[in-house]
């Protein structure tokens, strides 16, 4: 397998509870390397733009407000088959369905406050990475 990149967000519920280091350790222990990272307070424009794919869904407004509620940590992760590896270590969206040892099983509060976001494909990873990072900011 090739070394690839993916995108990750440590969400407001995790930063509020000071879990940035714990989440990053779980990612690194899973074989992913952080090659770019920054803590930001998402603006409305960023949150609405990033989640535009969900704009017609009933939860869109709540999602935008949640993502603006506290700082988040946006990251570029690198590793063997990074998208799949990250999704594996994140666990199912609903923490109740997530496997033991995954980020969401161990750290998430609910399906809405599920601690992390991760790209679902290499194509979306490239789009999501470019949304928050310039090439110069990725220093693997």
UniProtKB/TrEMBL annotation:
SMART domains: NDK (SM00562)
Pfam families: NDK
Cofactor section: Mg(2+)
Keywords: ATP-binding, Cytoplasm, Kinase, Magnesium, Metal-binding, Nucleotide metabolism, Nucleotide-binding, Phosphoprotein, Transferase
Family: Belongs to the NDK family.
Signal sequence bounds: none
Residues that bind ATP: 11, 59, 87, 93, 104, 114
Reaction(s) catalysed (UniProt annotation): a 2'-deoxyribonucleoside 5'-diphosphate + ATP = a 2'-deoxyribonucleoside 5'-triphosphate + ADP; a ribonucleoside 5'-diphosphate + ATP = a ribonucleoside 5'-triphosphate + ADP
Nucleoside diphosphate kinase-like domain mapped to chain residues: 3-140
Function comment: Major role in the synthesis of nucleoside triphosphates other than ATP. The ATP gamma phosphate is transferred to the NDP beta phosphate via a ping-pong mechanism, using a phosphorylated active-site intermediate.
SUPFAM superfamilies in the cross-refs: Nucleoside diphosphate kinase, NDK
GO MF annotations, alphabetized: ATP binding; metal ion binding; nucleoside diphosphate kinase activity
Major place of residence: cytoplasm
Subcellular location: Cytoplasm
Native source species: Erythrobacter dokdonensis DSW-74
EC number: 2.7.4.6
Name the UniProt record assigns to this protein: Nucleoside diphosphate kinase
Gene3D superfamilies: Nucleoside diphosphate kinase-like domain (3.30.70.141)
GO biological process, one term: UTP biosynthetic process
Designated gene of the protein: ndk
InterPro entries: NDK-like_dom, NDK-like_dom_sf, Nucleoside_diP_kinase, Nucleoside_diP_kinase_AS
């Amino acid at each position: 397998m090739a070394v690839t990149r993916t995108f990750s967000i440590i969400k407001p519920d995790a930063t509020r509870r000071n879990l940035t280091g714990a989440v990053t350790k779980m990612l690194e222990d899973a074989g992913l390397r952080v090659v770019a990272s920054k803590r930001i307070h998402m603006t409305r424009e960023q949150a609405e733009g990033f989640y535009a794919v969900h704009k017609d869904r009933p939860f869109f407004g709540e999602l935008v407000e949640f993502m603006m509620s506290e700082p988040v940590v946006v990251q570029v992760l690198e590793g063997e088959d990074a998208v799949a590896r990250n999704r594996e270590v994140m666990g199912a969206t609903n923490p109740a369905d997530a496997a033991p040892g995954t980020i969401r099983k161990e750290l998430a509060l609910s399906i809405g406050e599920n601690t992390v976001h991760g790209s679902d494909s290499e194509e979306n990873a490239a789009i999501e990475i470019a949304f928050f990072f310039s090439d110069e900011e990725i220093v693997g």
